[in-house]
Design brief:
Layout: H1 3-7, H2 14-26, H3 31-43, H4 48-62, H5 72-86, E1 90-91, H6 104-110, E2 112-113, H7 115-128, E3 133-136, E4 143-146, E5 149-155, E6 160-163, H8 164-173, H9 178-182, E7 187-188, H10 190-207, H11 211-224, H12 229-241, H13 245-255, H14 261-275
Parallel strand pairs: 1-2
Antiparallel strand pairs: 3-4, 3-7, 4-5, 5-6
Helix pairs in contact: 3-7, 3-10, 4-6, 4-7, 10-11, 11-12, 12-13, 13-14
């Protein structure tokens, strides 16, 4: 990895981010690595060793049901049978926003988690047994597709298999707009998982006005996706909500020289609002 890439990560927690980025460059990063990174970020130390024994137990249970020689539907049902039915892993309906649900070590210990952390577990068990799964960045609910046959989906939070058409129908019944229902759902790589988990933490903590952790999450998102204007704008809005107007101005001023066209116009208009003491929502 280049010196410039390493230089992005300079604070005490950042060697974990740098190690993750190195695995990405080598092509070795997995969804589970992304979940481990977020747990490390939250805990302040690696949780990898704590995860290994329960993860091995998951693989042992699933090995009776999952193998490369089986078809996608059989392997999907096998993962659900082993992890949901036999071992009891399920979505945490009662304490959905608890930080423990974003820590894969706690998910393994409590057998409860978010759609995205449970998906990382299912994907890792499948990978270790020679069966690949792909993360699907569906709106509001992270799911998996069997790489053998992407028409076979898994919903680890509910502990079920499903078809994409059924999932879209569920979204439609929940009031999703037509533009969402008609758009393809993109696959999610390990960095995408990390960014989505950080965005979840940022949103949940900002709703609770827990600004310190929300801003930490937002700052990490910015460093992982420095070219994404949506991430910058989220960060600036969060700074405003937290009462840090000068920091919001500084963030916009820093990026302005690299922008042109409509993006530059938006940032200049926003800066003008800030300088007049107005808040943009």
């Amino acid at each position: 990895m280049s010196t410039e890439a390493h230089a992005i990560w300079a604070s005490p927690e950042d060697p974990a981010f740098a190690a993750f980025a190195a695995r990405e460059v080598a092509g070795d990063a997995t969804l589970f690595d992304g979940a481990l990174l977020i747990a490390h970020w939250l805990a302040g130390a690696s949780v990898e060793d704590a995860c290994e024994a329960p993860l091995a137990a998951c693989c042992e249970a699933a090995s009776r049901w999952v193998a490369p020689r089986f078809d996608a539907a059989t392997n999907g049902e096998g993962l659900v049978t082993a992890l949901a039915t036999e071992l009891g892993y399920a979505g945490d309906q009662d304490h959905y926003g608890a930080l423990e649900n974003s820590r894969i070590d706690q998910v393994l210990a409590r057998k409860r988690g978010l759609p995205i952390t449970l998906a990382a577990l299912y994907a890792e068990v499948g990978r270790r047994l020679g069966v690949a799964l792909t993360g699907i960045n569906a709106p509001g609910h992270f799911v998996l597709a069997m790489s053998q046959d992407p028409r076979v989906w898994l919903d680890p939070f509910a502990g079920t298999t499903l078809q994409e058409a059924a999932f879209r129908e569920r979204l439609r019944s929940q009031g999703a707009p037509a533009v969402v229902l008609s758009a393809p759902f993109r696959p999610c790589d390990p960095r995408g998982l990390v960014l989505r988990m950080l965005a979840n933490i940022q949103q949940q903590r900002s709703e609770q006005r827990a600004w310190a952790l929300a801003l930490r999450a937002s700052g990490a998102r910015r460093r992982l996706a420095p070219a994404q204007l949506s991430v910058l704008f989220d960060h600036v809005q969060l700074l405003q909500r937290a009462g840090q107007r000068h920091e919001a101005e500084a963030a916009l001023q820093a990026v302005l020289p690299s922008l042109e066209g409509r993006a530059a116009e938006l940032v200049m208009a926003w800066l003008a609002q800030l300088q007049r003491g107005q808040t943009r929502h």
